[in-house]
Design brief:
Radius of gyration: 16 Å
Order of helices and strands: HEEEHEEH
Number of domains: 1
Shape: globular
Helix content: 25-40%
CATH topology: HIT family, subunit A
CATH superfamily: HIT-like
CATH architecture: 2-Layer Sandwich
Distance between the termini: 37 Å
CATH class: Alpha Beta
């Protein structure tokens, strides 16, 4: 029996599209910025091949994706000084391995609830409240990841 082809899965949106604003792509993974007006510094680290669970990866690749998550978190903390960073790997709706890395603020629309909870308040133009423009933040993340 041959090795299972995990590169693409029929019907998987993360196999057929980037999943947001592409920040960086390598041979193993990509980092995108989600388009979320309420949480503008919302990034995803997405494994390129279709695997559903973190333990589907060999240990070397598990380390690689977690080091990438850590670098994205570090850039967000240093550049934005958020109130908190949320990390999550849920995949219930899209069963393709990806990690959420989200800068959260005590002023954001859902704070202190999760980003998928009902809004607690309206926040106009949240991106303008960040310490720097999103394009510059994307560039810092790309630079940190490509400097490996």
């Amino acid at each position: 029996m041959g090795q299972l082809d995990t590169s693409r899965a029929v019907g998987c949106e993360l196999c057929t599209q980037d999943g947001g604003v592409l920040v960086v792509r390598t041979d193993k993974l990509r980092v995108i910025r989600a388009t979320d007006a309420d949480h503008p510094a919302f990034y995803r680290v997405i494994w390129n091949d279709h695997v559903a669970e973190w333990t589907d990866l060999v240990p070397e690749n598990r380390s690689h994706i977690m080091q990438t998550v850590a670098k994205v978190e570090t850039v967000l903390r240093e550049a934005l000084a958020p109130t908190k960073i949320n990390l999550a790997s849920l995949g219930n709706v899209v069963p393709h391995l990806h990690w959420h890395v989200i800068a959260r603020y005590d002023w954001d629309a859902r704070w202190p609830a999760p980003v998928w909870a009902p809004k607690q308040r309206e926040v106009d133009d949240a991106a303008k409240r960040l310490a720097l423009p999103l394009e510059k933040l994307d560039a810092l993340i790309a630079s940190a990841l490509l400097a490996r």
